[in-house]
Amino acid sequence: MESGYVRVAGKAEIPVGKMKAVKLEGKEILIANVNDNYYAIGNRCTHAGGDLSQGVLEGNVVTCPKHHAKFDVTTGKVVSHPKIRFLHPKANDEPTYQVKVENENILVKF
Model's pTM, two decimal places? Predict the structure, then answer.
């Protein structure tokens, strides 16, 4: 196994269109399967800390369950900011992590 990569899940644990939260050295990371490609971004919404793994994944966009900020799981970029009546809060892009698959294992560079 290449240095710097850590096994976070098996492929069978994250089917197409699904997500899983993992913890690596105190950081929460969201692993998402988009069309059999795996992506890893921060799991906590940059607006108010919502758990993205509890949100909804549609295509390559995850929606935070708290205030509905949307993030592209392939890039970590904000797609739309939180929706709160009368307020216009901003979210920052999520950190991204390199992912590779070896055999049936999903590995994240950390």
Answer: 0.94
